[in-house]
């Protein structure tokens, strides 16, 4: 279109010049005038082409800028959507972190809670025995490898726990404790699942809070360990009571008809005479603990199931006392049992545990005797 316009201007000038020539001007003058006008037309044409190029460049730049702007807007939108999603989770009540004891995931309103904890105990052992084929036996051992999950669902009253442990011989992982529970209020609660039978005081103290690397030998002889059961608990300011209806000692996660008892009952009571319940989670007298005294007693009975190899009724009892005075922590427990087989002679083993630790350097160094 620009070229047509240029030729139109040139034709007009030529026509004017021809007309002027016809009017009597000399041919030479007419040619000079024509050359000057053509030069002016060429300059105008060059200016127009330059302007058109500038317009095209500006249009291209604007198109690129618009495209880049769209891309940036799209990216910003994605980031904002992601932020909104994360914010919606928080606004929906989700929180996570570490409370100084456990990692946790929880709803903001407190209706849901998952606590995650673990325990590792790795040690080297030297055992010496006279007149044995191998008098000195040494080696490393992963004594305890545990991963624990617990909390509540829907309401803090509905509790649960699923705890895993690796076998110390081979490392196979399995469930050693699993239960659901409900808090009825006013100190009354219930649990159902694979739980420790409420019996020996030392057994009920967590392995993570023992004063020694393991519990005592007499504890291991009389312990009832875990069992499938229904357990009722009552806790008051100075008194606790636990009742258990179970499948018998060492019966955790067993199928029906596998264990050697028809039924088992256990009852344990504790009386807090001084101090707080919390300080008796272990047997050490920490600097923050007050003077404390705790008394306990328990009884257990199981009836043997002859059809499954349980040929004896078993009755066991224990009385114990825990005290913390100054830097001294003390645990004393007496335990006994009656084993009454269907045939043969009854036996009545008994044991006595005395364990004491003293904080020479408060909260840092505590030698003990057992």
Distance between the termini: 110 Å
Outline type: elongated
Strands, total number: 15
* CA-based gyration radius: 45 Å
Share of residues in helices: 25-40%
Low-confidence stretches: none
Keywords, separated by commas or semicolons:
alpha+beta; 15-stranded antiparallel β-sheet; 15 strands; 43% strand
Topology:
Layout: H1 2-22, H2 27-91, E1 94-98, E2 103-107, E3 113-128, E4 136-152, E5 158-166, E6 173-185, E7 188-196, H3 201-204, H4 217-222, E8 226-235, E9 239-246, E10 261-274, E11 292-304, E12 312-325, E13 328-341, E14 350-358, E15 368-369
Antiparallel strand pairs: 1-2, 2-3, 3-4, 4-5, 5-6, 6-7, 7-8, 8-9, 9-10, 10-11, 11-12, 12-13, 13-14, 14-15
Verbal overview:
By secondary structure, this protein is α+β, with helices and mostly antiparallel strands. It has 2 domains: 77 residues; 184 residues, no CATH class. The chain is 26% helix and 43% strand. It is built from 4 helices and 15 strands. It has a 15-stranded antiparallel β-sheet with strand order 1-2-3-4-5-6-7-8-9-10-11-12-13-14-15. A hairpin with a 2-residue loop joins strand 6 and strand 7. Helix 1 runs antiparallel to helix 2. The radius of gyration is 45 Å and the shape is elongated. The mean pLDDT is 87.
